[in-house]
Design goal:
alpha/beta, five-stranded parallel sheet, Rossmann fold, homodimer, 17% strand, 2 domains
Amino acid sequence: MIKVQFAARPERWDTYQAPLREAFAKAGLQVDLRQDHAPAEVDYVIYAPNSDLQDFTGYTACKAVLSLWAGVEKITGNTTLTQPLCRMVDPGLTAGMVEWVTGHVLRYHLDIDRSLKTQDRWDPVVPPLAQERPVTVLGLGALGAACATALAQLGFPVTGWSRSAKCIPGITCEYGDAGFARALQQAQILILLLPDTPATHNTLDAKTLSLLPKGARIINPGRGPLIEDAALLAALDSSHLAHATLDVFRQEPLPQEHPFWAHPQITVTPHIAAETRPLTASQMIVQNIQRGETGLPLLNQVNRDLGY
Amino acid sequence: MIKVQFAARPERWDTYQAPLREAFAKAGLQVDLRQDHAPAEVDYVIYAPNSDLQDFTGYTACKAVLSLWAGVEKITGNTTLTQPLCRMVDPGLTAGMVEWVTGHVLRYHLDIDRSLKTQDRWDPVVPPLAQERPVTVLGLGALGAACATALAQLGFPVTGWSRSAKCIPGITCEYGDAGFARALQQAQILILLLPDTPATHNTLDAKTLSLLPKGARIINPGRGPLIEDAALLAALDSSHLAHATLDVFRQEPLPQEHPFWAHPQITVTPHIAAETRPLTASQMIVQNIQRGETGLPLLNQVNRDLGY
């Protein structure tokens, strides 16, 4: 009998219990799934960092901690957590992110805001074709690669950038410091999908924002600290940037007094771009436990040195 | 020397002359391209129905009339035009239509209007996945099929309907009267891409609109007469329909006094969804003249009985 502890907020337990049990049954795994095992007996922990479980010292037999969240920056700082840690890569989350990013890229590309605001006259402005609109995706992990590929399929010339070299069909892949400037210099629309690590903090600051072409627009469904707030506001106010759509923030919920709320060139959305979906996330967790039990390497394991 | 007459508004001549001459040269065709040939000597007419040329009786040697427009309803009523008539199927126009339709489908799917309007509070509403959002495309010609395919690639369950049976991979294809009700009954988002013929007038009237599920949204980048204006307004006012985005109208520009302009559940766009692009359209025209000269059947020839 495999002992699995579910450690997340109570409302998550309500949502996840049924799909997890169903996925365990389908996989033919005999599992004792609970919120309250004795720590030393636990084989796997299904984990959200806002649960009560913060001290992993007693979990001496634990083979893996399986995060319900895609971003693990709130977990990797936990020094008691020495067990193998896996990020959530949920196909439902990826699909939702691709839809959200594609929708906002097309909103910018077609200037849908203008259509909605200026409904007072017949004044045709035909947008260029996607093939004339270079788009750049910073970060080519599971989410960035999926978004880049979907945008390329719609005809956008897509450049992707990642810390280390990657190769994705149909995408111009840049990497490292040298590639970073090239990736930004032609981006009419820039999408941020980098992980939140010390190295990615303030990826967009006054200096790097100045590399973007005049009139560029930014979409950040990644993490708040990727952008230096004051530098973004300055770039918008000087009209160097045309607009920003932000789904993530340094502090969430975004405080009411934050200047992003009222800025005419900023759209704030309340961290809705990527949501883990219980059905598909449960299947991923069960798949990883099955791999652990049969001696296969775990999927999406976090590299503690890199932080993701 | 092939004699080609260009019959469209003067500003079109300015736009099309260079790309047409270039495409003729590339195809190795010796062409005398002008606006003013002697009618009896003309081999081909490149045509827009708002040009001065309305009487085709003298064009006795003309092998084909090649429309610059995708919709030919303003041409097929011309009884002097007995020559083979070809519609414009421009890959640039198709790409632009796919981008416009996909953008507005995602706008509805993600409820982007709500994000833009309610930027005053942190109130997360996560949209469903595309796979939970059935979309129907009425009309499976070149444009409808391309839009249906792009939407299916994004994960939407897409139903397509056409007058006669069609088969498109990844699309649930319905046809005829029996299939029409099925195509409408589950459409959360309905896209109109039917041709403008007497048979398609008022495709959406009070009766057919009532087949749509409550809260459905409509996108019409096809032709104005496909919808009975008063029935659409009534369905929106009764909250049976949630919203409509209209790019085409019975009268264009849409008259200032028309109730569509001020309606809170209607977005009016000024016929910008599909625009013929000179570069790609010129290549299509030259390809058809080349086919005509080498005895191959013309592409996209209009069936006068059906009207498209």
